[in-house]
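Hi Y.,

Following your request, here is the sequence exactly as I used it, all 353 residues.
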Amino acid sequence: MSAEKKFMERCIQLAQYGEGSVAPNPMVGAVIVYKDEIIGEGYHRKCGEAHAEVNAIRSVKDENLLKDSTLYVSLEPCSHYGKTPPCAKLIIEKKIPRVVIACLDPFPQVAGRGVQMLEEAGIQVTVGVKQREALRLNERFIWFHEHKSPYVIAKWAQSADGYMDKIRSTRQECAVLLSSSVTQRYVHKLRTEVDAILVGSHTGILDNPSLSARYWKGKSPIRLVIDPKLSIPCSSHVYDGSVPTYIFTHKPVFSHQSVQFISLPVGANIVREIKDFLYQQNIQTLLVEGGAVTLQYFFEDGVNEARVEYTEKWLGEGIKAPQLLDSPEQTFSIDHSIIRVFKGYPLKIHDIS
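Below is the corresponding structure, written out as tokens. Let me know if you'd prefer a different format.
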């Protein structure tokens, strides 16, 4: 591996430390190299705080070395004033002569302007080192800005014979617990890494989910509920005010201190309406944990990723799980379950109606 790739690999490794803390910003890592030795490194730790380049520059003990150093960064330095000043401006001020960038930033206020600012200041800029890995690192952020739509992840657990649950009609009938306490923690970790989580009214009525990340350290996602007829009781967890909650409905909305109601036109494409709403709210990633019908609606409109837990339990009958037509990109074991990760837009399923 070349020295450039090695240093950029370190940038990408550093960037991952910001996972779950930097949204809606991308994960970014940076290192500063002087005579083939790293003299400074940093990553974007939290939205609203210093960016990776700033933290890397601050970590250098002798700033006099910067004028003879190379800055490696996993994403194009910003060129605009947001919650923090532009990193490109700081790089110019510190007289760093060379910058190596893995990939450009698709965010409209950057999108090549960072590179332009650096080059106009006489800085040598190289773009494309470890580009594929860097794009993969921020695939959700990049998808959101390039397609003006959230990155959608579908998630469910299923029995060995392909069922998600037994058929139930009341909240008093308990759901079949397919996940173990260990795989539940994996799911709650996933919840901390997304911006929003969604279920349909059937799940809201029967399961009374809190949709929180209580089994993993981190923030709970914003809650979204599709409830066209406002059938979910107001005593349910989704009305508890613990996190911002949006309920999408066809009914006339009423005032409630804990949730916001979003009115949907009758006959509208509900999934498309929700995606458009999320884009307008700068909510970049959506985890769909709804039942089979809700999942099918999203697969019909377009899903980017699916995370499926295959368990050893047999149900014999019940609600059939979606059957994916794509091959998994990744497979691994947690406890006694197999987790398969499917990626590719749009993922395809057999008709589960």
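The longest strand covers residues 151-158.

Thanks again,
Q.
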